[in-house]
Amino acid sequence: MFSKFKNTGVCIFLGLFLLLLAPNVFTQEIAQEEIGWPRTLEHLKGKITIYQPQVDSFENNIIEGRFAVSVILKGETEPVFGAVWYKARVETDRDTRMVNILDVKIPRTRFPDSAPEHEKELSEFLEKEIPKWNMNISLDRLLAGLDLAEKERTAAENLKNDPPKIFIEYDPSILVFIDGEPIMEKIENSSLERVVNTPFLVVYEKKSKAYYLNGGELWMTSSNITGPWKEAKSLPREVSQITPKEPEDMPQIEATDNRLPKVIVATEPTELIVIDGKPEYAPIEGTDLLYVTNTESDLLMDMATQQYLVLLSGRWYASKSMNGPWAYVPSDKLPESCNNIPEDSENGHLLSFIAGTEQAKEAVLDAQIPQTSAIKRDSGKDLKVEYDGSPKFEKAEDTDVEYAVNTSSAIFKVDNVYYCCSEAVWYVSKKPDGPWEVCDKVPDEIYTIPPSCPHYNTKYVYVYDTTPTVVYVGYYPGYMGSYIYGPTIVYGTGWYYHPWYGRYYYPHHWTWGFHVRWNPWYGWSFGLSFGSGPFRFTVGFGGWGRGWWGPAYPRRYGYPGGHRAAYRAGYRAGYWHGASRGGPPRATPYGNRSNVYNRQQNINRNVQRPQTQDRQRPNVAQGQRNNVYTDRNGDVYKRQDNGNWQKRENGKWSSTQTPSTQDRAQTRQPSTRTSSSSTLERQHQSRQHGTTRTRQFQGTQRSSGARTRRR
Q1: What distance in Å separates the CA atoms of residue 430 and residue 227, rounded to the nearest whole number?
Q2: Cis amide prior to 435 (ω within 30 degrees)
Q3: Residue 683: its pLDDT value, please?
Q4: Using H for helix, E for strand and C for coil, what is the string for 541-572?
Q5: Is there a cis peptide before residue 38, judged by omega within 30 degrees of 0?
Q6: Ramachandran assignment for 185, one of left (phi > 0), alpha (psi -120 to 50 degrees), beta (any other)
Q7: Residue predicted with more confidence, 290 or 529
Q8: pLDDT confidence of 125, banded at 50, 70, 90?
Q9: Helices and strands in the chain, H and E counts
Q10: What residues contact 169, with CB distance under 8 A and at least 6 apart?
């Protein structure tokens, strides 16, 4: 077929190149480790080597780029180098941090040793073979290359940054909050009442006229819901009977502090900062900053301005006194010293929220990558929604879009058609309660809803493409409450959404009160301000509902999304701290970054991925460096250990200008060659950084798997 090529075997081997990118399909439970680059495949007629793909653009679920390849035919000693451009649909999985590249098209190839008129024939051959194969690349390698791709940023606007009420306590304390004034409801078949508008288990026993708060291994009691609370030495029989069991998958961490904490009850958006005794300060090397060492919170003192800084839900607040008042500080208006925080220090995780840092840039890039899936068109028949009475709708501010208020589901009305976003998939119906079909086109009006709408997060769920049987969908981290806001990310919109209460109680997403922390691999996690040994609790388990945050489930007691607040032992135990690039986190946050599409109740909606067990597994090219690149023109370059670059010309490597020399030359006379090589140097730096991030994430997986659970 390819007899006209100077090297006839080149064509056959190139048809096999994607096999090098096809490890076994990754599982939902354990992140498969990427095997590394370059990758090689032996064939009867020779060997082909694929170098790490370079990214030109990544929009929605479409990725475009190019990669360098080399082929050594049997009997030959010199490889043939070339460039291959690709365009593909991707499926991303943040649990495994892998990107599965599917439906690949090859719009262009370039091989200097072959005749140009034959490249079209080669492309047609590859396009025919490519759909038969799977391939993947780690999300961290992809992220590292995105800063070189031209990409549109969709940042959230009109989020609220008003500070919540901030309590500072100097003794062990925990925050229990209620969504407004307590709403009591009788528990069936008992004389007990429970507070329904809180994610915590709080019950009232009429005979003793006392409230009881469950704390895992023990209960606390108070005659007044606002406290003071103390340990319940004995329990009424009915209270002891409803003690919930901890989930089997709840992480068990041995606590060294057995003090009972003070319970702070709040009925408005509140954050609690616990300092264990008198504040103890330590300097942050290379800065004018001190940090409070005996607290779980991120609390700093800027010596230059003599003001305190605290990070809450990704937002900075400043005050001259710990007692307030606190004022919002944009991430690009922080003291200059903040930019000098060492990335491998105890406070290195703060760099993700300081404008202009590499860590902040990476977090923003991460927020622009969707989690994707392919959904069966006929899965809409399984969707059921429930209203508290007849459906009631209100208009979203400054739009013609209406949304349902008396249901836990996110349901919109546009031009008398109803749209429901459930578990990161859009459905459509002619009636407010169904029947539902998987939606293949979401009205543009829905994407205009403002943050004041309680279902603002659904505008981060998209339909990308369709076939007669499949709808390709995806959601950005904004769906889970992680928003790009200017040059950094934040958690939550900052808005307070009034809940619905009729026969049922339906709460909405909260920004404050869960002591959220960021980790670069696992995203936002949640916890208590202080963890105490005998007193620990999770929110919304044991049949009492689900967690307060996240996409909604239609449940009797609301609390949508169910990510239990994990338990942390001792201040600054590192349980939530995001790791710097200098090393992995010391422990894994519990569960908040789970892939919605892979949740057990959603598996049947997904189109089954192609099986790859019967396909040849690629190998890492032993003894070969991942140092070959191609520029946008298709020329192939190799970076030497000394930082110099060589170009492949006339079947051999020849020296070209070093990036430093070219950068100087560029100031005198711009040239295509200068621009290309400077970009390649940045590609090299990004590739190195991506390799480091990938290895760090794999390290966290290994350490997490080896960690034993303790009670």
Answers
A1: 50
A2: yes
A3: 78
A4: CCCCCCCCCCCCCCCCCCCCCCCCCCCCCCCC
A5: yes
A6: beta
A7: 290
A8: low
A9: 7, 43
A10: 262, 264, 272, 273, 274, 275
What one-character DSSP code corresponds to residue 593?
Answer: T
Is the dihedral angle over the CA atoms 521, 526, 530, 534 positive or is it negative?
negative
Q: What is the pLDDT of residues 626-674, one digit of tens each?
A: 888 888 778 888 888 888 898 888 778 888 864 444 433 333 333 333 3
What is residue 15's three-state secondary structure?
coil
What does residue 677 show for φ and ψ, rounded to 5 degrees? -70, -35
> What is the distance between the alpha carbons of residues 49 and 202, in angstroms, rounded to a whole number?
62
d(CA 630, CA 640): 15
Q: Residue 198 in contact with residue 547, Cβ under 8 Å?
A: no
CA distances in angstroms from 252 to 27, 30, 469, 708, listed in the order given: 24, 20, 44, 9
For the chain, the structural domain boundaries read 9-152+623-704, 155-272+345-370+480-590, 273-344, 372-475
138: helix, coil or strand? strand
Amino acid residing at 22: A
Neighbours of 239 (CB within 10 A): 21
**Each residue's pLDDT tens digit, 51-68:** 788 888 888 788 888 877
Omega prior to 325 cis, within 30 of 0: yes
Specify the DSSP class assigned to residue 537. -
As a dihedral over the C-alpha atoms of residue 564, residue 527, residue 272, residue 165, rounded to 10 degrees, the angle is: -50
Measured CA to CA in angstroms, residue 264 lies from 134, 228, 273, 395 at distances of 53, 9, 11, 36
What pLDDT digit, counting tens, does each position of 148-207 carry?
554 434 567 889 999 999 999 999 898 998 999 999 999 888 899 999 898 888 999 999
